[in-house]
Every structure is written in C-alpha cells, then in structure tokens.
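Q: My labmate handed me this sequence with no annotations at all. I'd like to see what the chain might look like in three dimensions before we decide whether it's worth expressing. Could you predict it?
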Amino acid sequence: MRKTSKGGRFQTARDSRRAKDQGREAENKVVAICTTILGHLYPEIKRRAKMGRRDLGDIDGITAVTIEVKNSAIRMSESVREAETEGMNAKTADRWYAFLRIPSAPVSRWYAVTHVYVVLDMLKREEEQRREIIRLNQIVAHLTPDTRPHYDAT
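A: Here is what I predict for the chain of 154 residues:
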C-alpha cells in the first residue's frame, strides 16, 4: 500500500516499519556509547519516549542537553532544525546536538552537529570554569597554615 512519497518513490508500511526499527537501533547505539563514556556522571541515560510536536529529543538523562539521533546524515539541515526545535522544547536551546549516523562507521565516528554558537558558548563556559578553578587554587595557595580552615577530627 502506498503511504507517502519519499525520494521519488512511494514508501510502504514495511519501509516505514524498517525505518523506525533502524532509528530505534541508532538511538540504542547512542545510549550505549553515552552510558559507557558518561554513565558515571549521568547514571540515568536512556531513550526518551516520543512526544510528537513537543518532542524533547531522543536521549534522556544527560542534564541540560538535548540529543536528536538520526539514522542518516543525508538530510542534515532538516535534522539540525529538528534538534534545535527539540532543544527549545526541552529548554536547552543553548545545548542541543544532532547525532547523524555514518554508514559502516562505529557510533563513536558518527557526526555530532550543532550551530557554531552552541560550540562557542560551550568553549566559553569551559574556559570560564577553568579560570575560576585556577583563581580558587591561587587563593588557597596563599593561605598560611594559620589562616586555612581546619577541622577538628573529634
């Protein structure tokens, strides 16, 4: 049965089911690598249930970040718009990413796409945090043993 036009041909229900299965598989792969790398910081990483137009991204459990997973990098601009919209829905408009599958590549080599301002904002925040840590370390280094807070072990 014909459903919708896709790339000059009509998509069947079987094609749609296969695309959903492939999308779910891609999301599971992203959850697996996120859990491996970030699981000690974010132990609740999982696939997020779909919410239609008010969708909040595909991956849940990473604080203040929206991740939209796509099984293909073919429609990159469409994927980026969707990730940005879902970032706004999730109130993470400054931290959203579209993870785009690259055929035959491991998930660690897929593309992570966002706008330039998102990357620059992230770099700015990291540098501000780094400088604050240096500043605090310098303050602590100048404290003498008499001025450092001490704690009674009793």
